[in-house]
Specification:
Shape of chain C: globular
Strand content of chain C: under 5%
CATH architecture of chain C: Orthogonal Bundle
Distance between the termini of chain A: 56 Å
Shape of chain A: globular
Strand order of the largest sheet of chain A: 1-2
Helix content of chain A: 55-70%
Largest interface: A-C, 66 and 60 residues
Largest sheet of chain A: 2 strands, antiparallel
Number of domains of chain A: 2
Mean pLDDT of chain A: 79
Order of helices and strands of chain A: HHHHHEEHHHHHH
CATH class of chain C: Mainly Alpha
Number of strands of chain A: 2
CATH topology of chain C: Arp2/3 complex 21 kDa subunit ARPC3
Radius of gyration of chain C: 17 Å
Helix content of chain C: over 70%
Oligomer: heterotrimer
Number of domains of chain C: 1
Structural class of chain A: mainly alpha
Strand content of chain A: under 5%
Structural class of chain C: mainly alpha
Order of helices and strands of chain C: HEEHHHHH
Largest sheet of chain C: 2 strands, antiparallel
Chains: A mainly alpha, B alpha/beta, C mainly alpha
Chain lengths: 276, 351, 184
Amino acid sequence: MQDDKILGYQPGNTFVHKLNATTKLIFLLLVSVACMVTYDTRFLAIVCIFSLICLKIAGIKWRQISFIVKFIIVFAIINIIAVFIFQPTYGQDLYGSKNILLNAGYFTVTKEELFYLLNVILKYICSVPLVLLFLLTTNPSQFASSLNKIGISYKISYAVSLALRYIPTIQTDYWAISAAQQARGNELSKKANLGKRIKGTLNIVMPLIFSSIDRIDIISTAMQLRRFGSKKKRTWYVYEPFKPADYAVTALAIVLVVIVAILWHINSGRFFNPFK
Amino acid sequence: MVNDGEIIANENPNDLLHEDKLEKAGVRSPLYVKALSKADIDLAQISDLTSVSALPANPEIANKLQTWENTQTDPKPEKEGSVLLELKDVGHQYNKRQAHPLHDVNLKINKGDFISIVGQNGAGKTTLCRIICGFISNEGKAEFEGENLANFSIKERAEKIGYVMQDPNQMISQKMIFDEVALGLRLRNVNEAEIKDRVYKTLKICGLYPFRNWPISALSFGQKKRVTIAAILVLEPEMIILDEPTAGQDWKTYTEIMNFLRDLNERGKTIMIVTHDMHLMLEYTKRSFAFANGELIADTTPIQLLTDPTLVKKASLRRTSLFELAKHYNLDDPNGFVKAYIDSEEPREAK
Amino acid sequence: MKQKGLSVKSVVAIGIGAAIYVILARFTSIPTGIPNTNIEIVYPFLALLATIYGPVVGFAVGFIGHALNDFLMYGQTWWSWVLATAVLGLIIGLYGMRLDLEHGEFSVKQMVMFNIIQIIANIVSWLVIAPVGDILIYSEPANKVFLQGAAATITNSIVILILGTILLKAYAATKVKKGSLHKD
C-alpha cells in the first residue's frame, strides 16, 4: 500500500533507459569496484559529478529519490562521526603528516583527518546516483537475465528475479496481516511497551513467514511441472543483443577501471596524498 | 467422487446427476436439476442432464415447471431497520497509475441488513471493505451510528465492525484453536473465566466445539475459515463483513456457514458478504451492491440485479442456470421463475 | 531423478526467502531505545530458513536478501556485511542439516545445540568477517569496526536466541505428529 516509497522501475525513453540491462549492470559493477578500491580524491570527485549528470539525463526527478537520499545523508553523517570519534588520528597515520586545525586533546582535528573524512563521504555518495539510476531505469526481469549474461548461474539469476517479482506480493500480504492483527487488538505503535511490540510483531511475522514458506512448495511444484532446471543452460525471453551504444558505455567503464590502475601507480598506493 | 478418504463413486457425470449420491456426500447438485425435482419431474425420464441446452424440448416438462412456479407464495416483505453505517462520497486511490480508483460511493446500510457485494476483480469491493474497517484512508465520510468513523482506531472499529479476510492463513497467528479465538478477548483484558465461556459458545455456533483442543495445523481449509469467523464473532461486533466466506468450501460446509450466518442475521446482526457466487447472493442475501470500475452501479435486490441485462453485463455477473432453464422451456416470466425458486429455498415460518 | 546443482525447490526457496528477508528488514525493525540498535527479526528468519533448506540456501538468502535490501533501501550495498550475513546463514544451515523440523521435531537438547551453533556463527560473521571486510574494502579504522562488530554479535545472538528459538519451535509445531489427534 505504500507504493511510492519503493524504489522501483519507472519506464521511460531516455538514452539510459534504452541501454541494455547487462551494459548498465557491468558499468555499475566496474565503476563501483573502482570507487571502492581507490582513495584518489580527484577521481572520486569526477565520478560523483559524472553520475549526478547521468541522473539528470535519465530524467529522474528529485521527488522520486528524495526519500532515499535523506536516508543516505543521515547514514553517512552518523558513520563519519563514528569514524572520527573512534580514531581521530587515522588521517595522520594514513597521510604521514600532522597539520593541526583545532586543538582538543583526544579529539584534535587535523587537516589530514578532515581530508580523510571528505574521502569517506565521496566514497559513500559517488556510486549512489549510479545505483539509483540502475534501479529506476531497469526492468527487473531484464536485471535477472543480465546477471546470467555476466556469468552468474541461471538458477541464481532466476532466484533473484523470483525475489524481485515476489517482493510486492509479500509486501501486500504483510499489510493485510498487519491490518488484521491491529483489528484484533495488537498495538504496534510507540504507545505499547517493548514487550507488547515484540509480541505484536511476532503475531504478524509468523503468519507472514509460514504462509510465504507454503508458497515455496506450491511454486516449486509448478516449476518442476514445467521442467525448470533439467538442463544446464537457459535462454531468456527478454534477451536483447548489444547495440553500438552498449559497447561504447562498456568501453567507458573499462577505461575508468584502467584509470584507477594508473592512478594507483602514480600515487604508489590507494591514496592521493596532497600533503606530501 | 471422494468422501472421508474413500472413493465412493467412479462414473460419468450424467449418471451421477441422476442419482442422489452428490447431496449425500455434501456436494451441491446443479440448480436446474434441483428445480426439475422440485417441480415433481421424474429425472429418470430425462436422458441427458449434463446441461440446460441438452434437456429435451418436452411441453409436459414446461407445464410442470410453470405450474410449480405459480404455486409458490411470496414471502413476507422485510421491515427496514435504522441506519447503521452511512458512506458519503467515499473512495480511495492507491497510486497515481491506478486506472479506476474507487470513488463517490454513497450508501446507507441498515441494522439487520444482509447484503452482498458483487463485481469483477479490481472493481473496488475489497477496497470498500478496507475503508470501512479503517485499514486505509478514504475521501469522503464514513459514519457508524451517526459517529464519524475517522475518530476511531482500527482496534476500536473492530469492536463494531468485524472483518473476516479471504485467506484464513493471513489471519491465524496462534497454535491452538482455542487461543486463536480467544486472542481478541485476551488483548482486551477480559478475564479468563469469561473468555472460556464466550469462546466455547462461539465454537459451538461455528460447529468447532469437538475440535476445541486441537491445533490449527490439523484443520482443513474450510475449518480454518470457520476458526477465523469464530475469532471475529467472539468479539460480538454489530456488523460483520466477510470476504468470500465460501470460496473453496464444499456444499455441506458452505450451507452450514450460510445457514449460521442467516441465523445470526435473524438475531439482528448486520452482515455483508463479498462474493462471486451468484447462487449465494440470490439465496441468502436481501440486498446487493454491484461495483464496476470503481463505481457503485447498483443498490437493489439480488433478483432485480440478476435480471437486468445492462447491470449484469456492466458488473460481469454470471447468469444463473435457473434463468437458462426458464428460457429453454419458454416460461412466461423467467425472472419470476428464478424468484420462485429462491423463495422456495427460504426456511418455512413454522419450524 | 538426480539433478545437477541446485534443486528447483532450493531455487524457489532462495527467491522467496530473499523476498521475505527484504520485507522483514524493511518493515519489522523494533527500536529498543538504545541508539542504532534495533531488534531485527531478519536474523531469526534467516536461521529458520537455513535450518529448513540447508547451508546453500542459507548462504544465498543471506547474501541476496541483504544485498537487495541495501540496494533498495539505501541505494548502495555494504558488501562486507552482506558477506557476513551470508556466512551466518551458511553456518546455521550446516547445523540445520542435522535437525528435522519438517517432522515436528525440536527437542530441548536440539534447542541448546542450535543456540550454541548460532552464537558461534554470529561471532564468525560479525566479529571476524564484517570487521575484516570493512578494513580491507573500506579502509575503516580498526577499533571502530571491531566495536561495531562486537555490538552486532551481542544483539543478534540474543535476538536469535529468543525469537529464533520461538520461531523454530512454532514452525515445528505446525507439522503434526502422526496419530496424535481425536475428535472430542
